[in-house]
Amino acid sequence: MDSANKKLYLKSFLAGGVASMCAKTSVAPLDRMKILLQGQNKYYKDLGVFSGLKTIVKKEGFSGLYKGNNAQMVRIFPYGAVQFVSFEMYRMILRKSFGQSHFHNFLAGSTAGITAVAITYPLDVVRACLAFQIKGEHVYSGIFDAFSRIIKKEGGMMNLYKGFSPAVIAVIPKIGLSFYSFEKIKYLCLEYAPDVCGQYNSYGEQNLTVFAKLLCGGFAGAVAQIISYPLDTARRKMQLSNLSPHHYRKGLFTTIFLTYYQDGIARGLYRGMTINFLKIPMVAVSFTVYELLKEHFNVNKILHS
User: Fold this and answer.
1) Which UniProt keywords apply (predicted)?
2) Taking every pair of C-alpha atoms in the chain, what is the biggest distance, in angstroms?
3) DSSP-derived secondary structure for 76-99
């Protein structure tokens, strides 16, 4: 890889990290509420999304809405950066090897998601454990304490990878479909409605308008979330198995079966899904900020030439 490509991938890495931080911070309260519902926390399991958010503020103050978000930011920058830059690299490899195809966006996205999850998964476990705690009943005092306790007192390094199998399986449709859907809709918009959805930048490239980017990102997020959500629920239950008797220490398929058997589809496998629909703007923000930063850095022109 020559120095020019290294600089371009570095810019893509930075753009992906910043975009993911902006997106996650915008929905951090909803993300914490989802964890509390998925994990069936005893104080929140019978509440809805908005009543739950009100209860968090009442019990823990406004800052309670962002509990675990510091750990999330530590995780999400490398996660988003690795995911986006890996997508660009894998897509370029597939294009050179097999030619142009929209299906390659799915393969590149899925592989990029797996790469990002594998690298940052322990931070996701720590973040989930911190976000699940309730004021006055803390087991972990912070990120480093959580790492230390999980390794020394809760089963060692392998406990930092609880729920890893559903996480990896989930990103294949979730991230793959996100990138595929976004790139496909982006192509359709610029191909069939360029006057409405497109605009030219100073380099003569035609890109989506900001509003069109948001719409494409939102649709891509909705498709991916619906398909992958049960795996996300299983992942959370496995991650939180040391903090609540409602969670399971078994394997992926046992966790999915027990969740379905005990609570059904709507209140079990898809519990908290309403929050994920409310979080669809997060995906829109992520793709939009990433695309805007790529345009600012002039990455598209060379990466896709």
Assistant:
1) Membrane, Mitochondrion, Mitochondrion inner membrane, Repeat, Transmembrane, Transport
2) 60
3) HHHHHHHHHHHHHHHHHHHHHHH-
DSSP 131-196: HH--TT--S--SHHHHHHHHHHHSSSGGGGGTTHHHHHHHHHHHHHHHHHHHHHHHHHHHHH-HHH
CA 236 to centroid of chain Cα atoms: 13
pLDDT tens figures, 140-167: 888 888 888 888 877 778 888 888 888 8
| pTM, rounded to two decimals | 0.75
Query: Rounded to whole angstroms, what are the CA distances from 255 to 27, 219, 234, 266?
Result: 27, 29, 6, 16
**Do residues 17 and 78 lie in contact, with contact meaning Cβ atoms separated by under 8 Å?**
yes
Nearest Cα to Cα of residue 85 among 112, 104, 105, 111: 112
Distance in angstroms between the alpha carbons of the first and the last residue of the chain: 16
**CA separation for the pair 272, 34 (Å, rounded):** 5
Checking 58-66 for CB contacts under 8 A at 24+ apart, the result is: 59/134, 59/135, 60/134, 60/135, 64/32, 64/135, 65/28, 65/29, 65/32, 66/28, 66/29, 66/32
200 vs 293: CA distance, rounded Å: 15
In sequence order, the β-bridge partners of residue 207 are 199
User: In degrees rounded to 5, what are phi and psi of residue 198?
Assistant: -110, 160
Q: Give the Cα separation of 63 and 28 in Å (integer).
A: 11
- Distance (Å, whole) CA 304 – CA 13: 16
- The Cα–Cα gap between 197 and 81 comes to 27
Q: Is 65 exposed, middle or buried, given 0-12, 13-18 or 19+ CB atoms closer than 10 A?
A: middle
pLDDT single digits (tens) 227-271: 888 888 887 787 777 665 555 556 778 888 888 888 888 888 888
